[in-house]
Amino acid sequence: MNLAAFAMRYRPIVVTVTALLMLWGVISVRTMPRREDPEYTVRTCVVSSAWPGAPAEQVEKLVTKPLEEAIDSIDDVDVVYSETNVGLSTIYVDAEDAVTATQIDNVWDKVRARVARVQMPDASVVPDVNDEFGDTDVILFCVYQQPLPGENQIREDRRYTFRELDVISEHIKDELRLLPGVAKSAEYGVREEAIYVETDIGTWSQLSLTTSQLQQLVQSRNIVASGGTIDSDVGRFSIKPGGELDAVDELDSIVGGAAGGTDQDGDQRPVYLRDLGLKIVRDYEDPPRLICRYTGPETSQPCVVVALTMKSGANIVTICEAAKDRIQEMQTQQQSIPADIAITAVSDQSVNVNKKISDVVGNVVGAILIVIVVVYLIVGFRSAAVMASNIPVVVLGSLALITLFGVELEQISLASIIIALGLLVDNACLLY
Fold first, then answer.
1. 186-190: long-range contacts at Cβ-Cβ below 8 A with a sequence spacing of 24 or more?
2. What is the reported pTM?
3. Which residues are paired to 34 by β-bridges?
4. Which of 55, 150, 294, 337 would suit a FRET pair with 73, their CA atoms being 20 to 30 Å apart?
5. pLDDT tens for residues 20-32?
6. Is residue 15 classed as helix, strand or coil in its secondary structure?
7. HEC states along 174-220?
8. Residue 126: other Cβ atoms inside 10 A
């Protein structure tokens, strides 16, 4: 008994199986993980070490070569190659092709462990292992200030500082990080604060004080350490030393030396930094590491970018919609974001994913119409209807079956569906 005879003899069974298969396909389309690009395993990491001012030969000898020898001793590492410049060492580490996606994190953990054991020539040289090349931000929000409702421009007395803008964006980042499917959230364009000790060149030369000596003075004064504990009959108490610097004004109280004269007790009079003509200023890093700015039709303001990265197997459309709904809730219902703060999505990959899926649906409808028209002109409407009804059954059935292999809806799988659909239409037309 061939397949056609079996289908005619057991028609209720075939109809039921076909209906269940189509229902399975519809559910799969609505629940399948979606992303713009296919997920792949990056088997390369970068170990970068900065040693400002050191010549390339010294960096090669004391930083690059010891790190290369330590990393190359790992069994799962295939190739190690490096670039050494003035003040910078960059090492590329390629893992073996046999390393699977579930094992790659263990390989990078081994690299970090070996790198941490290598003694650097200076305490300021801290190697950084970066293995996050495969992470892609699915949506970007610009957080910037806008005029209050009813005003045309931002008043200078109400303009937010970089620090205040950072606090607001950090609150948004923390809220979005709790959404289901979000792997991590990050901020870009944050202006870090810094403390500058300023004076003219003549004062530096007269004091015979170098920046290294000044740094040692601050470190010896700024005590950040545990003071231990005291056990008593009523409990255990922690001791915190009071030497930590909490304010800029406290830097002025650092003793920079002693004067030649003596006081009533015969001790030399201490000389503080404020007595040496040094000006201590709290400001932002200059030059900044990264500058972010939002420019629209009516405004151009400095901003902080909040970016979200999705987890493996998550739905990019659901994540982006949930993020935008959460921001809308924070602005309107909770009102935890000031009214003069605007949050604009400048990059949303879910828009491209929805468009590509809509294109596939349009291609399916177009294929059905083509089959109906071509077959109808040749053999009539009945045969055309039979052939056209096969297309949604085949497409939905294929989508249902590929979920068993962990396939996601992304541009490569969607392209393969379109190609298979085109072949199906061609065969249908050639058959008649």
1. 186/137, 186/306, 186/307, 186/309, 187/304, 187/305, 187/306, 187/307, 188/290, 188/292, 188/304, 188/305, 188/307, 189/290, 189/291, 189/292, 189/302, 189/303, 189/304, 189/305, 190/162, 190/166, 190/304
2. 0.73
3. 409
4. 55
5. 888 888 888 788 8
6. helix
7. HHHHCCCCEEEEEEECCCCEEEEEECCHHHHHHHCCCHHHHHHHHHH
8. 13
